[in-house]
Specification:
This protein has 115 residues and is of the alpha+beta class. The chain is built from 3 helices and 7 strands. Strand 5 and strand 6 form a beta hairpin. The longest helix is centred in the C-terminal third of the chain and has 10 residues. It starts with 9 loop residues before the first strand and ends with a strand.
Length: 115
């Protein structure tokens, strides 16, 4: 990383530890806001946290996804890693389709941005 007031063309990735050009970096939220705001001890008791799915109290469910944005001067879309709150029915349907090669044909499912 860099110190305040210091500019750099590269950053150290928090995920892989390697250096990447700043122009290729993208923002990603580690957890849904409501889960992140919980004290760690409470989070450990109330949440099941996976890489792509989080549940809170076994009744509020979140899925991780990418929010693509077109940015002028950028060769590809800028994708923000976000969490969406979904119903249990939507979560179950996503799990049914998880490894289905035709999942892209599924209709849009409702969810609310959770970051």
């Amino acid at each position: 990383m860099y110190r305040a007031g210091e500019m750099t063309d590269e950053i150290i990735c928090a995920t892989c530890g390697r250096t990447h050009p700043v122009t290729e970096s993208e923002l990603a939220f580690g957890l849904p806001d409501v889960v992140f705001d919980l004290p760690e001890s409470e989070r450990a008791e109330r949440c099941k946290i996976g890489e792509d799915i989080v549940s809170l109290d076994d009744r509020t469910f979140f899925l991780r996804g990418l929010l693509p944005l077109k940015v002028a001067g950028r060769a590809r879309e800028y994708c923000i890693g976000v969490w969406a709150e979904v119903s249990e029915d939507v979560l179950n349907r996503v799990l049914e389709l998880w490894d289905d090669p035709d999942q892209g044909r599924e209709h849009t499912m409702p969810g609310s941005l959770a970051n």
